[in-house]
């Protein structure tokens, strides 16, 4: 099981925070035999915020946010659609700079951009 942790700082007085990732349709990348027509970005296990105080958010508990798929039954992690708005509570932690830590359970499979791949191996 993949467990990646990504952290980033959010400047002071930012009201809306979003995560952007690659995203793909599993049925197009893996094959037509996989009947999953959702656009999948990353599978988020937990979001931690550190500012004047610290707290954690489980994606399964979030509701009404753009860019998230419906929480799956008996799971606490949740898929993004590639561009996911984070809860407003994150901006309420502090009006100063804060650190956001995102723990991923998985990523989707993506098509590789041939030019991007060539640049990496050159």
- Structural class of the helix and strand makeup? alpha+beta
Unreliable stretches: none
Number of DSSP helical runs = 3
Strand content: 25-35%
The topology string of helices and strands comes to: EEHEEEEHEH
Number of strands: 7
What does this molecule look like?
This protein is α+β, with helices and mostly antiparallel strands and 122 residues long. It has three helices and seven strands. The chain has helices at residues 26-29, 89-92, 114-121, and strands spanning 4-10, 18-20, 42-50, 54-57, 78-79, 83-85, 98-107. Strands 1, 3, 4, 5 and 7 form a five-stranded antiparallel β-sheet that branches. A two-stranded antiparallel sheet has the order 2-6. A hairpin with a 3-residue loop joins strand 3 (42-50) and strand 4. The model has no long low-confidence stretch (mean pLDDT 81).
Question: Can you describe this structure in just a few lines?
Answer:
With 122 residues, the chain is α+β, with helices and mostly antiparallel strands. Helix content is 13%, strand content 31%.
Topology at a glance:
Blueprint: E1 4-10, E2 18-20, H1 26-29, E3 42-50, E4 54-57, E5 78-79, E6 83-85, H2 89-92, E7 98-107, H3 114-121
Antiparallel strand pairs: 1-7, 2-6, 3-4, 3-5, 3-7
